[in-house]
Design a protein that fits this description.
TPR repeat; 69% helix; 21 helices; two-stranded antiparallel sheet; mainly alpha; TPR-like_helical_dom_sf; 418 residues; TTC38
Length: 418
């Protein structure tokens, strides 16, 4: 098949066979940045128009790995094989080849090096939104807030309002700023992002984080509105409604929180780790507040049971364990905790060991809490506190473990430490 160099929506050259593939790729880029549910459809159209588009195959593989599901490792390896074969057929650009290399690194168990390879692209191609968004996601999964913000501080100022994707980049910048505690700057960046790109669900989400972390529940409810602005989004929309539920919970509106849980947050019974995390952490918060959540844990546990031996992401493992404990499935939760210990022992150094070790402490702490051994729960959760950043997730998400720690102290009679 013949091919030519075209410019994509970022302004970077892509090695594609035809303009139909380029246009479908542009749709893929915008959809990825918007967290649109249609992203896989646009990517499928791209590859249908050009089956030998190496960059699209590599991007697909990286997207699959970001879902942190054990069964997707094999399809991601297939994407790598197709990307490499396509790259041999054509003289792909160095930028495209580096995305393929990033996929190979992540598949080899080196996600940090994969992020570094993607960020190296930005040194020569500062408008490459694909490399930026993918590295942003990996850094978030690793809990690497410092490098996440460092990259955005370097790149985001170059995206003026005339760039068609500027809003999405400022949305990423807003989130990175918020996670480092620069709340005023983050709020400005996030509001600018949504003004420039109204479909920027991530930027809208970043502002919600700021409002949550600064205790502005009324503003948070007004900011998130009725959800029409995120109707296009993938399951990020469930997470944004989770934030809305937190604002409602802060106001003591537990009936409305349960309605949001039933009708939106868990309206679809999925086993995506992000969806399970939304549900489990919200139910736990409700129980800490003394609310009877009924049999809702059973549905989450039924989904989490199939993920006991996944071992892809510690943040996910902890929420699977929490779901299982909520339904009384202590043996399965214990299996997750012991799996984390085994993972830490198998990796004597590095970020994977640190994440697994801190995750194991937190998991056993949750188990002790559900066994009503609150003193032991406080000891274990307290030991995990300083290292929990390594498991990934946001401050708002990890706050669940702070709440569990405080509740353990209170229930063990140590009110002065809570």
């Amino acid at each position: 098949m013949s091919y030519a160099l075209h410019h994509d929506l970022s302004g970077d050259r892509v090695t594609v066979a035809n303009d139909a593939a380029r246009l479908a790729w542009n749709d893929t880029l915008e959809a990825l940045l918007a967290h649109a549910a249609a992203t896989p459809d646009h990517l499928a159209r791209t590859l249908a128009a050009d089956p030998d588009f190496a960059l699209a195959h590599a991007a697909k593989g990286l997207m699959l790995l970001s879902l942190a599901r054990a069964e997707l490792a094999a399809p991601a390896r297939d994407c790598l094989a197709k990307a490499r074969a396509a790259a041999r057929l054509r003289l792909v650009t160095r930028r495209e080849a580096m995305v393929v290399e990033a996929l190979a690194l992540w598949l080899d168990g080196a996600p940090r090096r994969a992020a570094e390879r993607l960020e190296a692209i930005l040194l020569a191609h500062p408008f490459d939104v694909l490399a930026l968004k993918l590295s942003h996601g990996i850094r978030f999964m690793l809990g690497d807030q410092v490098e996440m913000l460092s990259t955005l501080r370097r790149v985001a100022p170059g995206f003026g309002e005339s760039h068609p994707l500027a809003g999405y980049v400022h949305g990423c910048h807003a989130f990175a700023l918020e996670e480092r505690g620069f709340y005023a700057e983050a709020e400005r960046a996030g509001r600018r992002a949504v003004a420039l790109s109204p479909r920027d669900a991530w930027g809208r989400h970043a502002v919600a984080h700021v409002l949550e972390m600064t205790g502005r529940a009324d503003e948070g409810i007004a900011w998130l509105g009725d959800g029409r602005d995120i109707a296009h989004a993938n399951n990020l929309r469930f997470h944004i409604v989770w934030h809305l539920a937190l604002f409602r919970l802060e106001r003591g509106e537990t009936g409305e929180v349960l309605r949001l849980y039933d009708e939106e947050i868990r309206a679809e019974s999925t086993d995506d780790y992000r969806d399970i995390a939304n549900g489990a952490s919200l139910l736990a918060r409700l129980e800490f507040a003394g609310v009877d959540v009924g049999s809702r844990w059973d549905e989450l546990a039924a989904r989490a049971e199939g993920r006991v031996h996944d071992g892809c992401l510690v943040f996910a493992d902890l929420h699977y364990a929490l779901s299982l404990l909520g339904a009384g499935h202590a043996a399965e939760a214990d299996a997750i905790a012991r799996g984390l210990i085994a993972d830490a022992q198998a990796h004597p150094s590095g970020e994977r060991r640190d994440a697994a070790r801190n995750g194991a402490l937190a998991a056993f702490g949750l188990i002790a809490f559900h066994e009503r051994d609150y003193r032991e729960a406080a000891r274990l959760l307290g030991a995990a506190r300083d290292g929990l950043l390594t498991v990934g997730g946001s401050h708002a998400q990890r706050d669940l473990f702070e709440q569990a720690y405080a509740e353990s102290l209170i229930r063990s009679g140590e009110h002065d430490r809570a």
